Amino acid sequence: MILQDIIWTIALSGIAVVALVFIYILLGTGKAADEAAMSKAARTARKLQGGLFVLLLLGFAFGTWATLHKFPIPKQDGALQADQVVDVTARMWSWTMRPASVAAGKTVEFRVTSADVNHGFALYAPDGHIVIQTQAMPEFTNRILYRFDAPGVYTVQCLEYCGIGHAPMKATFNVVAAKGE
Ligand code: CUA
Fold first, then answer.
1. Could you point out which of 60, 78, 82, 122 has its C-alpha 20 to 30 Å from the C-alpha of 18?
2. Overall pTM surpassing 0.70 (yes/no)
3. Closest ligand 1 atom, CA of 167?
4. Relative to the CA of 163, which ligand 1 atom is closest?
5. What is the pLDDT of residues 86-96, one digit of tens each?
6. CA-CA distance, 181 to 160, in Å (whole number)?
């Protein structure tokens, strides 16, 4: 099931629950009120409310952690503990990467800068999906950490409009199998 279908199913289920509760309340109207039952129901509602609040809080905390703990942009101050470093310089309209290849399975720190205007450094896997991206800015170095799981020829593409040569501003980047594997 794709993500949209899952979200759609959850939303429909939620709507169904709300509709059922609404129908239940409608069916109950017109009955004589029972004091004891009403105060018991109020206490139960308060407990449920508290429980639901805690549940939602935990849900949001977990959701935030699960979606952000692998955020690829590391702290920009201090040394990064990467196994390999690649210096990336963008200029109208080419990329310089030293070295031009890294080993798979080891962390890589890309130090990305520009010799002229702003460019967008984006790295695409051989299957065409984007794996990392950051801005290439003049007089500033953006660092980004990544570990390539699979060897292959990756493609760098500029993602920030930088003039007439923007669209073909591409380069290839080799990820080779780690030695001894
Ligand atoms: Cu460089 Cu667009």
1. 60
2. no
3. 2
4. 2
5. 999 999 999 99
6. 37
How many residues in total does the chain contain? Answer: 181
CA of 119 from ligand 1 middle (Å) equals: 4
What distance in angstroms lies between residue 95's CA and the mean position of ligand 1's atoms?
10
**Cα(179)–Cα(60) distance, integer angstroms:** 42
Q: Name residue 56's amino acid.
A: L
CB atoms inside a 10 Å sphere around CB 86:
19
Query: Averaged over 1-22, what is the pLDDT?
Result: 90
Q: Which residue's alpha carbon is nearest to atom 1 within ligand 1?
A: 119
Distance of alpha carbon 70 from alpha carbon 149, whole angstroms: 15
Ligand 1 atom closest to the Cα of residue 169 is: 1
Q: What is the pLDDT of residues 54-102, one digit of tens each?
A: 999 999 999 998 887 766 666 666 667 788 899 999 999 999 999 988 9
List of residues 6+ apart from 176 with CB closer than 8 A: 101, 102, 103, 104, 151
Q: How far is the C-alpha of 144 from the C-alpha of 163, rounded, in Å?
A: 25
Distance 159 CA to ligand 1 centre (A): 6
The DSSP letter of residue 33 is P
| Residue type present at position 112 | V
Ligand 1 atom nearest 118 alpha carbon: 1
| Ligand 1 lining (C-beta closer than 6 Å) | 90, 93, 119, 158, 160-162, 166, 169
